[in-house]
Design brief:
mainly alpha; globular; two-stranded parallel ribbon; two-stranded antiparallel sheet
Length: about 425
Amino acid sequence: MTRLKLGALKYPVFIMAAWITVLLLRLIPIGGKWGSLDDFTWFVFIIWFVVYFSAMLFGISYKPKHTINTNSFPVKWQNCWITQLSFYSIIGAMLIIYEFAITRHYGFSTPVSIIRILEIEAANAGFKGSWISGAGRMLTPALMVAWVLASLAWKEVAKRTLIILWTASAVVFYQQMLFEGGRFYLGALFVMIFLAKFFAIQPRLQKHVLIGKTLWVGFFLAVCLLFGYMFIDRYEQLNRAFYEAYETWTLNFDLEITDAVRSRLSGEMPGFWLAINMLWAYVTQGLNELNVILLSCQPDMGWGRINFTQIAQMLGKLTNLDFKYDSNYNMPKTGTYITLYGATYIDFGHVGGLIFISIVGWVTGMSTRLLHSRYFNGLSISAPLLLTLGIFSPIVSLVLNLWPAFCWALLVGWTLKLSYYRASSIATNVL
């Protein structure tokens, strides 16, 4: 195995580490004790993971046959696209703000928890969505690709471009926090930037390593605090006691709330413990919800309506037919996380899900090898997105959130007008 291929293998390890972390967290009774998984659930999960990881390793073995060697990173192209993508994301965020604040009359003070309840009620009543917010949700993921491009060669980004990028980030963050909660968008973006930095073309100086690690730890803690605040704010807006809210929320889960959990939620610092418990439950619930679906639920096949909801909504608007997947009827609980495998199983069944994830794994491995090799095209730019999808796979499917960003990455790469673009003079040392 070549040195280059060995270097590219370190990226799928992040996905394996994510699965190991989630499995270990399930064993720690932070917010209660999860019920045991059935042998059949373990069996199909292991097969799914082996297929996914094997396809990824096969993709890493891919070597492009036609390449063009260049003497420098395409800086002009990079700055141009960061600017354009930032403006697209601002337009998308403004469209969503207009739709929710003005057209749907939520204003700027309605709690996001109330908005979510009202939106679910409207969808159940037959509301098929809006072209305005639909366009917004296709445009805002452009910011993810902009950050990937910036992270790949941070020192090459012009100051004016950085100002535009940070402005777009502030606008999108505001829109996400105000109307959509933003947990997955912000969490995925954080992980994506973190991964893109590993592909960065500038070698890091040793004296900057400690500063960089400190900043990343600070950003990680800030994201965790932000997520925790969302949970606290949700129940404060609903005027509910924290211990009561947590027990009610977990009532239909296969989760035993211990006396230790109850005492922490009703003792000192209940808000802190609510945030910790909710973070733990959100991260670890996926496998148990998958267990319920596989054993006691026979959902109708979604045919892509779970992972590609936007397409189903567009078809519904165009044909005036109902393409919405009825989660209330087909799933034991709506709004819960069922892992990437669970989402692909509902959409395509066991065999179809394995075929789908094998394709995703192969494309992930191939894109990782390309970007690690400093070949720049739409597929290689997508590597941080696809790795992020894998890292979140033990919790939830992010296909719904990331496929528009994947399309943006393909468009950006296509504009290079070359099959592959290599910046070998900057990246002289490939691990």
